[in-house]
Design goal:
The complex is a heterodimer of chains A (about 350) and B (about 80). With about 350 residues, chain A is of the alpha/beta class. Helix content of chain A is about 40%, strand content about 15%. Chain A has 14 helices and nine strands. With about 80 residues, chain B is mainly α. Classes of the chains: A alpha/beta (about 350), B mainly alpha (about 80).
Chain lengths: ~350, ~80
């Protein structure tokens, strides 16, 4: 295994020998993340395309997020929900959750992702559980992207119909993590790191991990995300694992300028490298990316997309601009995303499985 | 041959069973000719029907593959070419 050096190029013979292996793993990442030529990148793409079609067919799963509340006790420099930042704080009551679910249901979606900021006081586990219970009446797949919980708390949510957990480590660079999370429970790096494993122990069907590219060295974060995934898949093979690597976007009212990953080629290379070493893991791309770009990523192995997105607390209340977490770049409706996917020759999957 | 020349290609020998016909059609052959396999069958009508079904299946499969094969003559980087733009 070589040193992770993104400036080192690899000769064609070595590269072709690597690509002729049936199975690629984290040991191959230094070469896959090195300075590859256009031809080599295309070879990675061809293999990623072939393996994705083999494992998933030509399908793309759609879902949408619903922010339940943005109260937060943390002071994460890069996030609009930072306790010190001026954003209108709000949480939905259960009637509003019903209304929001109904409106999402009308777009044909069957998977919803419920999010909150971190406040056990104002959006505690009992509140989240009640909201999940409401959502489970509308959707076959209810996921959560909230603060880290204990095993028995995850179990309680699973009991009311939650089947999916999303939790990003943000960055795997501990020093950087400490600097970015100034105060609040999220400052505990290890507690957050162990959350996917607690979710697996509780019995979550699907778990998504990832890093926010741009918070630290993106190659380092991609590599360590791969390390985390390798560990989790080995110990919990029964879970349907998923990956996402959102690219950081600057926020309006913060004083943080990220080391944003502007280079699309670089981002695509990371995506392809991870796709190649994890051919059976689902890969999702958020609306931080523009529609035309997301479209190009589907043949490269992205098989899960959010659609009809709003990052505000509730979408129907009229104060969306004041409560949102970040600006999205793809405002496509579910129908528009569905059309985009179909035009590529892929099929949208709304309902992956049903609970009986 | 199917890829090299642009005339209809008919296979006229070696089609001993319906799956052979199906396979030939999947490759893009335009037609198959069958005699012995049908004539020497105890139930020629049924065997002819099996061949018809096999030919239809093979042809449908061939047509369904159109557009999936990356043509050498097309853009050199069809999947990642957009990054150069």
């Amino acid at each position: 295994m070589g040193v992770l050096d993104s400036n080192r190029s690899v000769d064609d013979a070595t590269f072709d020998s690597l690509m002729s292996k049936d199975i690629l793993n984290i040991g191959d990442l230094p070469l896959l993340l090195s300075k590859v030529s256009d031809v080599q990148l295309e070879k990675m793409a061809i293999r990623a395309n072939r393996e994705s079609i083999h494992n998933f067919g030509r399908t793309v799963q759609l879902f949408t997020p619903l922010y339940l509340g943005n109260y937060c006790e943390n002071k994460c420099i890069y996030c609009a929900f930072n306790q010190d930042y001026k954003v209108k704080r709000k949480k939905l009551n259960l009637d509003q959750v019903h209304d929001e679910c109904q409106s999402v249901l009308e777009t044909d979606l069957d998977e919803i992702l419920l999010l909150t900021g971190e406040s056990r006081k104002l959006t505690g586990v009992d509140y989240i559980k009640s909201c999940c219970e409401v959502a489970a009446n509308y959707f076959n797949s209810v996921g959560i992207e909230i603060y880290p919980l204990e095993v028995d708390e995850y179990k309680a949510l699973i009991d009311v119909g939650v089947s999916s957990l999303t939790i990003y480590q943000e960055t795997y660079n501990e020093e950087r993590y400490d600097a970015l999370h100034v105060a609040g429970p999220k400052k505990d790096y290890r507690y957050r790191l162990d959350a996917p494993e607690r979710g697996a122990k509780a019995g979550m069907n699907k778990i998504q991990i990832g890093a926010l590219l741009g918070l630290a060295d993106p190659f380092e974060d991609a590599y360590k995300t791969a390390g985390h995934m390798t560990y989790l898949m080995k110990h919990y093979p029964e879970v349907e694992w998923g990956l996402s690597l959102p690219r950081l976007k600057d926020i309006e009212n913060g004083n943080f300028i990220g080391d944003n990953v502007e280079d699309r080629l670089f981002f695509v290379q990371i995506l392809l490298a991870l796709r190649l070493i994890f051919p059976k893991v689902s890969f999702s791309v958020s609306t931080r990316e523009e529609s035309q770009f997301r479209e190009k990523l589907i043949p490269l192995g992205v098989n899960k997309l959010s659609a009809g997105v709003s990052t505000s607390v509730g979408r129907q209340s009229g104060d969306e601009d004041e409560t949102k977490q970040f600006e999205i770049s793809d405002e496509s409706s579910v129908e528009e995303v569905k059309d985009m996917v179909s035009e590529l020759g892929y099929q949208v999957v709304f309902r992956n499985w049903v609970t009986v | 041959m199917v890829e090299e020349i642009d005339v209809p290609i008919i296979v006229d020998a070696g089609i001993g069973k319906p799956s052979d016909a199906c396979e030939a059609m999947e490759m893009g052959i335009d037609a198959v000719m069958v005699n012995t396999a049908i004539a020497s069958s105890p139930d020629p009508t049924a065997m002819a029907k099996a061949f018809r079904q096999a030919v239809e299946a093979g042809r449908t499969a061939y047509e369904a593959k159109l557009g999936r094969v990356l043509n050498e003559a097309s853009a050199s980087s069809p999947l990642t070419g957009f990054l150069g733009a």
